[in-house]
Design brief:
heterodimer; A: 171 residues; 7 helices; 3 strands; 74% helix; 6% strand; B: 8 helices; 2 strands; 71% helix
Chain lengths: 171, 177
Amino acid sequence: MGALTPPMIAALAAGIWFGMFVATQWGVLHLLSPSRRARVLVLGYGGCCIGCVITIFQLVDVTSMRPLSFIFASMTAGCLFVLYAPFYYVVTNSLSVQSMVLLAEGEGRLARKDLREKAGGHRLLRGRLETLVKSGYVVKDGAAFRITRRGRWLIGPFLRLKTLWKLGPGG
Amino acid sequence: MKAIIVAALVTAVVAGAVTIAFRWATTRRQAAVMVRISLGFVPVLVLVWGATPDDLGFLPPTVLAEPQWFDLTACLFFYTAAFCGGLLQLYNLAERGLSLRILAELRSSDRPMTVDEIAEGYSEGRGLAWMYDKRLEGLTQHGLVVVDGEEVRLTARGRLWARRFARLRRFLRVPVP
């Protein structure tokens, strides 16, 4: 192993496996264009974590150093994920990015009203509601929508944080 | 382990400092305030890491990471991730999250809501148009677009970034908005 200590091997393994996860995720999205994109993210990351655990078992042969190696690998993989996920969602879901892309497609300029309707209109709201229904946070009730217990459970901590930080309604 | 413990403790202090700043100082650029606070605590993090013993007085030898430079680098990385991927994202979601705001509207209503009602009542009655104008204002502040009367134009910088994002989105087969 040379000068590499077990925690360094673990961090390196986590980094390499994370790189493979991103490459696989992008490859799958490009080639297969699946409808459940979040599932590709979660399954890909899960696979990366399993691969990382196996790699550490094989490379770190000092049993007493394995717990520290696993801690460093999980921290590295977890940190890389929390840094990567916002970047991915900015590219794919951000309203601001969508608006810029729409403007670029409209030769760099669009009427404010058209842009708002295309990027931030009722269609956007319907799309988000559909996603919330699919995820089980909201249910359809005739033509209307109702929050589920799971949705209440999700929004609760955020509302408390908004109160703590005095953020106002936002959105 | 020292890297993880020190990074976690300093992040907790940063969260406390952000809370104090948000509760007692009114500012429009809250994300910038958060970033400044986080950067201000980087020297504190390095000082705490340097001034404390390797085992922090209680850690067993099997959980001490070596060499020293690696432990400090890991500490800085964990701190960066905890702030950028943790605190800052929490703020973004709480302050700007569209789906979370929809959930908040539905939670505050005592009956099911239609799409039109959600759009009208969005953000305590400000409406969906207000939300979109806020996004446009953000793009304008960052010099990415110019709003000229009823027309919105990309700036040269905006055009550059729009092309990059468009290429990425095409590669990832993101449906056209």
